[in-house]
Design goal:
This protein has helices at about 35-50, 55-65, 100-115, 125-140, 145-160, 175, 180-195, 205-215, 270-280, 285-295, 320-335, 345-360, 365-375, 385-390, 395-405; strands at about 1-5, 10-15, 20-30, 70-80, 80-90, 195-205, 240-245, 250-260, 300-305, 310-315, 405-415. The protein is an alpha+beta fold and about 425 residues long. Strand 1 (about 1-5) and strand 2 form a beta hairpin. Helix 1 (about 35-50) crosses helix 7 and helix 9 crosses helix 12 (about 345-360). The chain is globular and about 60 Å long.
């Protein structure tokens, strides 16, 4: 890794494993509700056209000239961080006798980021209005996907006292409605000037030429942000509960627990193994006992977030079974707390996590994410052997300790008349 300037890094990962080259640029700022909405709309505009490629058709034609390059911009949230991700995947020029292709791809990204379709400090109005309308339609459609809707409602409840965290990475419709093309121009300028920027190039490339080309990019020489990564909630004895009733055939019961375990914690691997046993895999307690044996759920699983120190449980149930399912979920957690874990279950979970990790190493994006976290949290960097060793070293007592420290913080249920409506 090298610093192009303060707050801007370039990481070239040389490998002959792939026949493509992946260019990935991540802009990182602090997540706020207002900026999340603006930055999401900004990604739509940057992805649609630019000054050099003023229509979507012209831009698509350029990608075709780059031998069918894959291009996309999106947003994500990790703890307190809001990320704008710019990705371009090119065929390796060595396979098509076009050694200049990679540098052409870098030039393409430069024009997209530095020369958007703007006039007089405002984005092109026609593009702006169209993309704003498209994003508004998307945000309004989320409530139709009841599983996603329930997950977002649980997040809103869990972080009810945190005005920023309760808003998702893509923002909300209320804030979007008031945005103007001039405001979005300002958002773009602030992103270029203030965000921490990580650039990744993965593939069989000439490192020197790549380094030289990115060094020519005219990033503003400014003091860039480096927000605190982790989010926590103040735990008290009050469990937040919310029940919404809508005409759905399948109720959604979601629970949020505070774990106190974060990415840098020595307990992280035990936390991961706990999740596999609790609800992360088909042999987990939630899946086998709530869904299979008791037949009380259409689906039942758990997931963990090591940047917000939380565990979430997601279930799809019949409304009349809500109390029974709640009790049964609690019993599964209690069983793990008491050490009701067979050696076979523990070993199966660790083997599955190991295989999952090894498989992820075949994916370019997984390598990039590992490097990104190693940049932000340098002392967490691990070799493949170290990761596997840490997974396999987790004991039953380690898992019990994780389970005993979980504190239920929020319960959200979306339920309705089972004879009315659609899922």
């Amino acid at each position: 890794m090298e610093h192009l300037q303060s707050g801007i890094t370039l990481q070239i990962i040389p490998t002959k494993k792939y026949k493509t080259t992946r260019l990935f640029i991540r802009f990182t700022s602090r997540h706020t509700a207002d900026e999340a909405t603006k930055r999401t709309l900004l990604t739509s505009l940057l992805e649609t056209n630019s000054k050099q490629y003023p229509t979507q058709t012209v831009l698509s034609k350029k990608l075709a000239e780059l031998y069918g390059a894959s291009f996309g911009i999106n947003v994500a949230k990790k703890g307190n961080l809001h990320q704008v991700n710019v990705g371009l995947t090119l065929v390796n020029g060595k396979y098509i006798a076009d050694e200049s292709l990679l540098l052409e791809g870098i030039d393409f990204l430069e024009t997209i980021l530095f020369e958007p379709n703007t006039t007089q400090e405002s984005f092109d109005e026609a593009t702006f209005l169209l993309e704003k309308e498209n994003l508004l339609a998307y945000l309004e459609s989320i409530s139709e996907d009841k599983q996603t809707y329930a997950s977002l409602k649980l997040q809103e409840l869990y972080f009810s006292e945190d005005a920023e965290q309760k808003v998702p990475s893509f923002g909300d419709a209320k804030r979007l409605a008031t945005l103007t093309a001039a405001q979005l121009y300002q958002t773009h300028q602030e992103m270029l000037q203030n965000d921490h920027i990580d650039i990744f190039v993965v593939g069989d490339v000439d490192s020197d030429s790549v380094r030289q080309r990115f060094a020519e990019w005219k990033f503003p020489a400014t003091k860039r942000v480096h927000p605190e990564l982790y989010v926590d909630v103040v735990q008290n004895n009050i469990i937040k509960e919310n029940i919404l009733r809508e005409p759905v055939t399948q109720a959604k019961l979601n629970l949020g627990y505070r774990s106190g375990v974060y990415y840098e914690s020595e307990q992280r691997m035990a936390f991961t193994v706990f999740n596999g046993l609790f609800g992360g895999f088909p042999h987990s307690k939630l899946f086998t006992n709530v869904r299979e044996k008791a037949s009380l759920a259409y689906y039942a699983s758990s997931s963990i977030d090591t940047f917000r120190g939380m565990v979430t449980v997601q279930t799809g149930i019949d409304s009349q079974n809500r109390e029974r399912v709640m009790k049964l979920i609690h019993e599964q957690l209690l069983a793990i707390q008491q050490g009701d874990i067979s050696e076979k279950e523990l070993m199966q979970t660790k083997e599955m996590l190991k295989n999952q990790y090894l498989l992820s190493q075949d994916y370019v994006q997984a390598l990039i994410e590992q490097q990104y976290l190693a940049t932000w949290l340098p002392h967490t960097k691990r070799t493949e052997e170290q990761v596997i060793k840490e997974i396999m070293a987790v004991t039953k007592k380690d898992v019990q300790k994780i389970a005993k420290n979980l504190e239920l913080h929020a319960v959200f249920c979306l339920e309705g008349d089972s004879h009315n409506g659609e899922n």
